[in-house]
């Protein structure tokens, strides 16, 4: 059994603030250890379930967060950026299941460190007119590969968001949101044990994904009209309004296009704020 792990940081055990997840934040280095140990718990659970290969993709921010010397040596790691598929880099139809470790709720939802990919730069995302974020897009693109998402860990809001997309996905809440930068934490040892045991259980009862038929529609509303203006130069991308672009394609291509959108946005918005 081949298992793929996408590891984000905002939903990691003990993490609640930007200082935890952004270098050179005061607690960023400590949070890197917490992130690595959450991933290790999932890796242990995967091998206990019979995994023969585990690939881990560092999917947060600079994508250089996980500590290779602390990572379970049975796992293989993809580190750094840019990557054409971003948070899904390395996933192929050859994998039997995907695990989402440390994920967070979408922009506009009151979850710990909630946002969608680029903080304030992205206001909203819709997939076939349904509000979505990193969780929904990952789930949909994974299904397009024919790979089921078996597990998600994060705060309770992120877990609820995943259940809204697919009730069959096992979830592990490692904290309970009190506000966007506050949470009631599950004790570290208890959270890691829950991640490990739930991973093992989830991989022994992997759900079968419903593979989407035909093209799907992605719409993204940006904070800046300048981003929309540049993105409409990409063939197939149209403008819904001054700050919203729309594109239709198969789900895997949409995910890759969206990662191109992120790189364009980064270039366009690289100047310091005017006010």
TrEMBL record:
Keyword Glycoprotein: no
Active site: 115 (nucleophile)
Keyword Zinc: yes
Positions annotated to bind Zn(2+) 2: 8, 60, 104, 134
Database matches in CDD domains: DAP_dppA_1
UniProt-listed Pfam families: Peptidase_M55
Known EC number: 3.4.11.-
Class of enzymatic activity (EC top level): hydrolase
Molecular function as annotated in GO: aminopeptidase activity; metal ion binding
This protein's UniProt keywords: Aminopeptidase, Hydrolase, Metal-binding, Protease, Zinc
Residue positions binding Zn(2+) 1: 8, 10
Protein name in the entry: D-amino peptidase
The organism of origin for this protein: Kribbella shirazensis
Source lineage: Bacteria, Bacillati, Actinomycetota, Actinomycetes, Propionibacteriales
């Amino acid at each position: 059994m081949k298992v793929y792990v996408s590891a984000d940081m905002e939903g990691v055990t003990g993490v609640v603030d930007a200082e935890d997840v952004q270098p050179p934040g005061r607690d960023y280095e400590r949070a890197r250890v917490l992130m690595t140990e959450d991933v290790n718990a999932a890796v242990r659970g995967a091998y206990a379930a019979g995994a023969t290969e585990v690939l881990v993709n560092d999917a947060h921010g600079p994508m250089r967060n996980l500590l290779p010397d602390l990572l379970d040596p049975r796992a293989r790691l993809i580190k750094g950026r840019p990557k054409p598929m971003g948070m899904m880099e390395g996933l192929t139809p050859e994998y039997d299941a995907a695990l989402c470790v440390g994920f967070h709720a979408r922009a506009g939802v009151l979850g710990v460190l909630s946002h969608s990919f680029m903080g304030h730069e992205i206001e909203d995302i819709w997939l076939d007119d349904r509000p979505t974020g990193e969780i929904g897009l990952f789930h949909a693109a994974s299904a397009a590969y024919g790979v089921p998402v078996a597990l998600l860990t994060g705060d309770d809001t992120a877990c609820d968001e995943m259940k809204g997309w697919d009730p069959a996905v096992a979830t592990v809440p490692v904290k309970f949101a009190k506000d966007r930068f506050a949470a009631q934490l599950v004790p570290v040892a208890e959270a890691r044990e829950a991640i490990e045991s739930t991973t093992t259980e989830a991989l022994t009862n992997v759900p079968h994904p419903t593979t989407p038929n035909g093209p799907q529609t992605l719409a993204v509303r940006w904070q800046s009209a300048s981003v929309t203006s540049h993105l409409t130069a990409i063939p197939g991308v149209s403008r819904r309004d001054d700050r919203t672009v729309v594109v239709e394609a198969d789900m895997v291509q949409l995910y890759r296009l969206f990662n191109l959108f992120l790189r364009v946005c980064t270039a366009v918005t690289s100047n310091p704020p005017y006010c």
